[in-house]
Design a protein that fits this description.
Blueprint (H helix, E strand, L loop, with lengths): L3 E5 L10 H10 L4 E4 L16 H11 L4 E7 L6 H15 L3 E5 L18 H20 L2 E5 L4 E6 L12 E4 L3 H10 L2 E4 L11 H21 L8 E5 L13 H12 L5 E5 L11 H15 L1
Helix pairs in contact: 2-3, 3-4, 4-5, 5-6, 7-8
Length: about 300
């Protein structure tokens, strides 16, 4: 099974101060997809520069030709399906059909309260996502959509001419719980996970592999319940949030070992963070580039 290698470039640099060059370099290094986070601010970056995901990806589309582009991940925390669909159709057009939408339920960070709402419970986030994804699916696939739901409405929303990618751009649904996995099975062209967050602080890499195996098994069951073969669904691991943390980026051999263990679980794509000095994503840039250029060949 082939394993694609992608990167996520956080939008913390001005476009003319390294932002543009990172996306161009990602294409030169041969990454499959360049993703970015879709937040209004994020963790330790809250009080520093941080730019919007869709305009950043639009800029990236203009300076690359082959690199796929995407979000990891968009959420309902501050998005509405109608306006998001219009932005995505535009981005898909500008990029020539190179966009993947990573989408999830969102968390409890700054995005969850920045518009003045109370933090949603896990169940409320799941409820919203369960309405958000099917509506967005329709908005990106149909010329005109009307819908009245518990959380979102659309009145004759027009999305002509639709996506370059048909019937719409692909969804990569981030999920670990049963409802999210069912959404991924029904609407996703890919599934995204970061592993089991309960293992990040005190777990072991071996425990993480077992947890991920369980997630893949549950996704397989969710697909089977819908009559879908899970082998047709790409499986994406966003690295950096398992007990391995940054160790896979310490050497080419370390990464190849990490990637091989996760390919055996059925993952088809690994995403590594573009190095950011003095952060949780600090890494040796030379080793990072070596991994980008040589790891796939070693993995066969």
């Amino acid at each position: 099974m082939s394993l694609r290698l992608s990167t996520v470039i956080l939008p913390y640099r001005r476009w003319n101060e390294g932002g543009r060059e990172a996306w161009q370099r990602a294409e030169q290094l041969g990454f499959h997809t360049g993703y970015t986070y879709d937040h209004l601010s994020w963790r330790t970056f809250r009080d520093g520069p941080w730019f919007g995901a869709v305009p950043t990806l639009t800029g990236a589309a203009g300076v690359t030709e082959r690199l796929r582009l995407g979000t990891l991940v968009t959420s309902p925390n501050f998005r509405h399906p109608v306006t998001l669909a219009k932005e995505l159709i535009t981005l898909d057009d500008i990029s020539g059909g190179r966009v993947t939408l990573g989408i999830g339920a969102g968390g409890t960070g700054f995005d969850a309260t920045v518009l003045g709402q109370d933090t949603w419970t896990p169940r409320e986030r799941a409820d919203r996502l369960a309405e958000f994804v099917p509506l967005l699916d329709r908005l990106l696939s149909e010329d005109s959509v009307s819908y009245e739901g518990d959380f979102y409405s659309a009145h004759e929303a027009r999305n002509i001419p639709g996506c370059v990618q048909r019937p719409r751009l692909p969804f990569a649904v981030a999920a670990t719980g049963p409802r999210g996995l069912r959404l991924a099975a029904r609407h996703g062209q890919a599934w995204v996970t970061t592993g089991d967050p309960k293992l990040f602080e005190n777990g072991t890499p071996e425990q993480s592999v077992q947890a991920l195996r369980g997630q893949v098994d549950r996704l397989t069951d969710a697909c089977a319940a819908l009559g879908r073969d899970a082998k047709g669904l790409d499986k994406i691991l966003l690295t950096g949030f398992t007990p391995d943390r940054g160790r896979p980026l310490e050497s080419l051999d370390a990464f190849v070992d990490f990637a091989g263990r996760h390919r055996e679980l059925g993952f088809t794509e690994l995403v590594i963070h573009w190095p950011i000095p003095d952060s949780d994503f600090a890494a040796d840039e030379k080793i990072f580039e070596q991994i980008a250029m040589e790891a796939s060949a070693q993995l066969g």
